[in-house]
Amino acid sequence: MSLPPTGRTAEDLLTEIAKLKGNDLPVRGGQVTAYVYDTGRAGIGEAAARAYAEMLEVNCLDPTAFPSVVEMERQVVGAVADLLGGGHGIFTSGGTESIMLAVKAARDAAGRSRPTLVLPVTAHPAFHKAAHYLGIEVVPVPVDLATYKVRASDVEAAMDADTIMVVASAPSYPQGVIDPIEEVAAVAARAGVPCHVDACVGGWLLPWLREAGAAVPPFDLSVPGVTSLSCDLHKFGYAPKGASVVLFADPAMRRRAYFASAAWPGYTIINATVQSSRSAGPLGGAWATLQALGRQGYVELGRSALEATARLREGITAIPGLRVLGEPEASLVAFAGDGIDVFVLADEARARGWFLQPQLSYAGIPANLHITVTGATMSGVEAMLKVIAESAGAARLRGPVVLPDGLVELVAGLDLDALDDAAFAELAASVDVDLRPGAGQPEMATVNAVLDALPAPAREAVLVRFLSVIYGS
């Protein structure tokens, strides 16, 4: 891209944006079962978008310059704290940043020279990212392969004098099950170690499911031993992207998450988040969404999601060759295939206009497809089940992906740093995955099959190159 010689009109720009979005997955309607969260209600998105635009140019860097930021954040964080057992919070850009701040606070409070982070293998990769950035070693703990939940005894065995935090999920994203929060928090408390509950998915969902009649165990800051919790509002809060909250039971721990610097002659630097300058647009959008839906709106959305999840589980179980993994306790469902390649099934569903999220096998958990059930899902659940059944039948006829002999070993043994992006793209093309600009959306079954056959470090190296190629120079 080069800059145009003269400025373009807003109408012209919006026309081009619409063209650029032509191949995007739809963000409304429930046919995309990951990444986007849709209430299915008219007017909610519009209210959020207008508030987002109103706050777009307000800078959260200096709350003394823009007191609206302070008041909005107090209200949003206060609503989250009121629902999730109290605490003292920070509004962040998403779950990864909330988790990053919680880990930073625990690291700084512990003052260990070789800090470690104990977490289940089902914990979100944001913890690995935080550990990578903050110089912390991850100690992974296996989960029970019948329930997909971590055992408190395994967490206790993994802790030592260098442990700065233990993690449990409510729920874990892959299978939608809730770790035994009370038990994990208890063993952490006995060792004097902070316990973080990752409720990025469930924080603004589980309380409403409970009100709708679901059996939801205690999981928030009201549980003894839970010292921090992350909750995303751009998931089941249905706010525009860029909205999350991290809560700390102790205000002193919240202060540990902050960053201040006076070692320069410029303006005062004090940041509550990883970012410095940041738009208040996401804050405005989150505030407006909470206000527009209200308590009753969230209760109704929770009831709808609960009903849709039950119907989806029932329907998937009835399809020959498919099985739901575990006993989902939130509106997240994962299913594996017996005699059906789930990666091929995902491509078949994509060809029919539906996106089902592939998840690779790991730590004894089989490859599977993931569905996030939102407020908009109930109206389309029968259509979704019909597509899954048709796609399963088509995948059974096609059979599993057959990789060329030696391909996995070749990829595993490659020095990817020695390949430029063009050479990597040629390698991808050799298995019919065309990554060149304008080539369109490739079928992903082969890519996922290769990744699934590789160990985690090799998967990560391939994914980095994949991203580098599709973005280009």
How would you characterize the overall build of this protein?
GO terms for molecular function: aromatic-L-amino-acid decarboxylase activity; pyridoxal phosphate binding; transaminase activity. It holds the Pfam family Pyridoxal_deC. InterPro entries: GrpII_AminoAcid_Decarb (IPR050477), PyrdxlP-dep_de-COase (IPR002129), PyrdxlP-dep_Trfase (IPR015424), PyrdxlP-dep_Trfase_major (IPR015421), PyrdxlP-dep_Trfase_small (IPR015422). Its cofactor is pyridoxal 5'-phosphate. The modification N6-(pyridoxal phosphate)lysine is found at residue 235. With 473 residues, the protein is of the alpha/beta class. It has three domains: 47-289, Aspartate Aminotransferase, domain 2, CATH 3.40.640.10; 296-398, Aspartate Aminotransferase, domain 1 (Alpha-Beta Complex), CATH 3.90.1150.10; 407-471, no CATH class. It contains 16 helices and 13 strands. Strands 1-7-6-5-4-2-3 form a seven-stranded mixed sheet, with helices on both faces. It has a four-stranded antiparallel sheet with strand order 10-11-13-12, covered by helices on one side. A two-stranded antiparallel sheet has the order 8-9. Helix 2 runs antiparallel to helix 10 (281-317), helix 3 packs parallel to helix 10 (281-317) and helix 4 packs across helix 5 (125-134). The chain starts with 9 loop residues before the first helix and ends with a helix. The mean pLDDT is 95.
